[in-house]
Amino acid sequence: MNESDDALPDADSDCLSFTVEEEKKGERLDRYLAAAIPEVSRTRLKALILEGQVMLDGAPVDDPGQKLRVGASLSIRLPEAEPAEPQPENIPLMIVYEDDDLIVVDKPAGLVVHPASGHPTGTLVNALLAHCGASLSGVGGVKRPGIVHRLDKDTSGLLVVAKNDRAHQGLAAQFADHGRTGPLVRTYSALVWGVPDRKTGTIDAPLDRSSSHRDRMAVVRPGKGREAVTHYEVEARFAGDTGAPVAALVACQLETGRTHQIRVHMAHLGHPLIGDPVYGSGFKTKAGLLAPRAKAAVENFSRQALHARELGFAHPRSGEELHFESALPSDFQALIADFGSPLA
Which of 127, 199, 210, 234 could make a disulfide contact with 218, Cβ separation 3.0–4.6 Å? Predict the structure, then answer.
């Protein structure tokens, strides 16, 4: 449920390549990479630049402040993921539900789910190991004990984690089935640029890794990639400085759960998430259409406006249908409030 149940693979020793777009002209190297590879921290990216792991137009570059030109070719080599077993860390958790088989947490934005390159510590897995001890399921592998699905680092909301292998297999089967024969429900709140033409709709567009930006996902032709289906409903519309609609609060329900699914699908629809540094960067100029208060709020909002607000599934042992809801976090509520009253 990163909106995605299918996590991006660990970077290993991947070499990622990028071509600088028009809207990124003159941007600092470190800021460009931070937006292009949001799963790697800025501190780690700066260290990689200084270590000579970044190539600009085929030559090493070691200045994080290097300004980029349109069409410049960038490549960065990411080191292999830390092989060490994650260690318990005393990181506070917001626990919504817990029993002997599973735990449901309300993940804050900024918390990475499992260790990977750039985030070997300080993750949800480290926190869970401290809270649950050795009871977490090993099916997910040494770096991902108990993890059945995940949320992007900067997406907040509900996440279920298995405590034993039986629970892991039962939950994994429900996510693999996408709730088509069971009670699995996953609903998100998203604040997007513009207003979809239809109040409700379905985006049925397969996803695969982008051929030009390997760190991103993209909509591909039918028959290619993996099936991806998102249902949406416009819940509120907001006006800009001129009184014309400029943004919308949208409920997105996942039928499938692919990497970055909601972020890519809404961008494909022409309505990327506000604050999305990867799929919504081309819409930064839209902030100029906002009233001053909303414009300042958007410019200061440091993540994509996406929250996993509803999660329902069958308990893997008892079969009882469980349902949980999470209120919008304070930063998201404040952002919406700064847009003013919704349009009628």
Answer: 210
Rounded to 10°, the helix 29-36/42-50 angle is: 130
Catalytic entry in 152, 154, 331, 338: 152
Same domain for 334 and 200?
yes
Domain extent, residue 155, equals 82-177
The model carries a pTM of: 0.77
Residue 4 located in a structural domain: no
pLDDT in tens, 243-293: 999 999 999 999 999 999 999 999 999 999 999 999 998 887 888 899 999
* Tens digits of residue pLDDT in 230-241: 999 999 999 999
Q: Does 152 participate in catalysis according to the annotation?
A: yes
Let me know if residue 6 belongs to a domain.
no
Tell me whether residue 26 is exposed, middle or buried, using C-beta atoms within 10 angstroms of its C-beta: 0 to 12, 13 to 18, 19 or more.
exposed
Partners of 282 in the β-ladder? none
